[in-house]
Structure formats: C-alpha cells, structure tokens
Amino acid sequence: MSALKSRIADAIRTNGPMPVSLYILMCLHDPRDGYYATRPGFNADFTTAPETSQVFGELLGLWAAHEWMRLGSPRKFWLIELGPGRATMMADMLRAADSVKGFSDAAEIALIEASPALRHAQRERLEPRPTRTFDELEDVPPGPAIIVANEFLDCMSVRQFVRDGNSWRERQVGLATGERLHFGVGPHADLPPNVIPVGDNVEVAPALETMIDGVARRFRRDPGRALFIDYGPSDRSPGDTMRAYRMGQQVDPLADPGVADLTADVDFPRLRRIAESEGLMVHGPIQQGYFLTRLGAPDRARSLGRANPARADEISAAVHKLIAPDEMGTRFKAVCLSPHGVETPPGF
Ligand code: SAH
C-alpha cells in the first residue's frame, strides 16, 4: 500500500469517512506524497495542449501582446500564469510575443504554482528571465494583469452530491474490509449556493468561486484579462465526472492515491454565472478548435512546416490534434473574463 493510501486509511479509521473533496486535495496536494508534489514528470499521464504543439503557446503569446496593447501598452504589467506545469506555454508565449515591441520588457512574470518540484522546473525552463512564484492569485501585487491558465481549473478539488428523494447527500470515501477504499454517501446535506442541479448527481468546485472572486477583485482595481482554457461542456453543469489517469489510461480513482492524476470537468455555466454576478464581462466559452483557428493556428503550422520541411508532417499532425473536433478541438473551451466594456478579445 502506498504511504498516502495508508495515511488516508488511518484518517478514515480515526475520523470516519471523508468527503470526496478532501480525498482529492490529499491525493493532489499532500506535500509529502501528493501527485503534484511527487510527479513533476506528469506528462506521462496526460499530454496538455502546450506540450502537444508550440503553436498553442505562440498564439497565446500573440493574444496576450494584443490585449496588452489594448490596455494601452502599460510600461509594466503582470503576466500571470496559473498552474504553469513545465512552463512550456509561458516559454512559447514569450518567444512569440518578443516580436511585439515593448511587450517583453513590460511583462513581469508571475507564476502561481502549488508544487515545489514544478516551481523549480519552471524557473529553470524560463531562465535567464526573472520570474516570481506565488501561492495564490491574491498574492500578486497590484497592477495591470494578463492572466492565462491551461488545464488549471480541472485540477480543482470537487465536492460531489447524490440526490436522495427530495434532498442530497455528500459523496464520501470510506474504508471497507481488507483496507479497500470505497465510495459511499454521508448524511443529508445542503447544496452550496449558486448550484443548479441537473439530474441526480452534482459536482461543485468550491475553489472556482474563490478564484473568480480573486479575478473580479483584481479587475475592480486594475485593468486586465483572464483567459482560461480547459475541458467541460459549455451548456450544462457536470454531475459526476471526477476521474483518474495514469500513463494515459483511465484508472480507478481510489486504487492508487497520489499516484494517478485526478481531474473533473469544469463547470462552465457556473463559472459564467459567478463571473457575471461579480460584475465581470465574460467572452465564451467557445470551443478550442474555433478559438485557435481564428487565431491562425493552421497558417502558423504551415509556415513552421515550410521552415522545417523534415518535421512538417509532425507539426501539422500536432496542430490537427489541438483543433480537430474528434480530438481536443471541441472538448476544450476557451473563456475570457475582463472588466466591463472591453472590446471582444481575439479569437472570440
Ligand atoms: N498548464 C500546464 C500544466 C497543467 S497541470 C500545461 O498545460 O501543461 C496543472 C498545473 O496546476 C500543475 O502545474 C499543478 O502543479 C498546478 N496546480 C494544481 N492545483 C493548483 C493549486 N491549487 N494552486 C496552484 N497550482 C496548482
């Protein structure tokens, strides 16, 4: 049994079954044995868009430069990335945006990262460029900001509720004979505010609200944009989507705590509702394939291919993966939050 599994089993023996949300938090962020603390090479488990093709980060870099100009090309601004992973996207963004005069000198890089191992990898990847790392978005000092995040919202912990007649029960992780972890339900519980149930299962990421609240407070004080790219349906809230991946395969989320990645669909309708109620302007969610195509992904792939004829097929296949409807093109969505009154950002 893994070290984390036996600690979770001990905690359940002592305190009783734990909510799914606490189980996920321990699996992902336990400082000693959690997934992100111990597996900085997580790309064996899933491949993200920036790791699929450099075109992804390059287009986002040009997007950021365009929006920086719309902010009036401030002499200093924060370029903030939430959950940068190996910092591939930030490196590609900065390289591409270097062609826009003044952007690179104006950008102060702020990385919001929980994992010490990844913090180290990010600093190395972006050297010699100075970067600052923070625990939370709120910790980044005031100033105009362009915030970007790819596959960050999907690793927020979720609470799960199951309908029981006219009320709800929260899903929990308990311990069965033979030290086996299993799902069960707790006593009757109220759904959190802001939740519109669809069907008999409800999944809520409490941190989503905190995060949008942080963006809204920032944009009431300083101008900016926040671009999120992630997966989830745009027209309905997820019910029961928490799942685990290991080496590219979907696995039992209770089998190997801390060893497999845990993820859940992003609740885009709720994100929209909360953002609007906080006074933010919301563009999207729109499909990634549509967004990247409008930003010029196919053209960029062709010109990269002409410059590297030996790799042209590989480059075009990678970009196809990002935009094709049966690959990442429709499952992933882009959504942009901004203060009211801004012009529609590129791609939307
Ligand atoms: N954006 C990268 C990595 C995605 S994986 C890419 O597209 O390749 C998710 C990233 O978010 C990892 O860097 C992980 O360590 C970080 N992360 C997850 N939860 C976090 C939290 N609560 N606070 C800060 N960083 C977090």
Supply database-style keywords:
single chain, 348 residues, alpha/beta, Rossmann fold, 7-stranded mixed sheet, 5-stranded antiparallel sheet, 14 helices, 15 strands, 39% helix, globular, binds S-adenosyl-L-homocysteine
Q: State the shape.
A: globular
- The succession of helices and strands, N to C, reads HEHHHHEHHEHEEEEEEHEEEEHEHHHHE
User: What is the residue-averaged pLDDT?
Assistant: 95
Helix content percent band: 25-40%
Number of helices: 14
User: What is the straight-line distance between the termini?
Assistant: 48 Å
CATH class division: Alpha Beta
Number of domains: 1
Total strand segments: 15
Could you tell me which ligands this complex binds, including any ions or cofactors? S-adenosyl-L-homocysteine
Uncertain runs: none
CATH H-level superfamily title: Vaccinia Virus protein VP39
**CATH topology group:** Rossmann fold
Q: Sheet with the most strands?
A: 7 strands, mixed
Strand-pairing-aware structural class: alpha/beta
Produce a short descriptive summary.
By secondary structure, the protein is of the alpha/beta class. Helix content is about 40%, strand content about 25%.
Task: Describe what this molecule looks like in 3D.
The chain is α/β, with parallel strands linked by helices and 348 residues long. 39% of the residues lie in helices and 25% in strands. It has 14 helices and 15 strands. The N and C termini lie far apart (48 Å). The relative contact order is 0.15. Bound molecules: S-adenosyl-L-homocysteine. Residues 36, 48, 50-51, 83-85, 89, 112-115, 118, 150-152, 155 line the site of S-adenosyl-L-homocysteine (SAH).
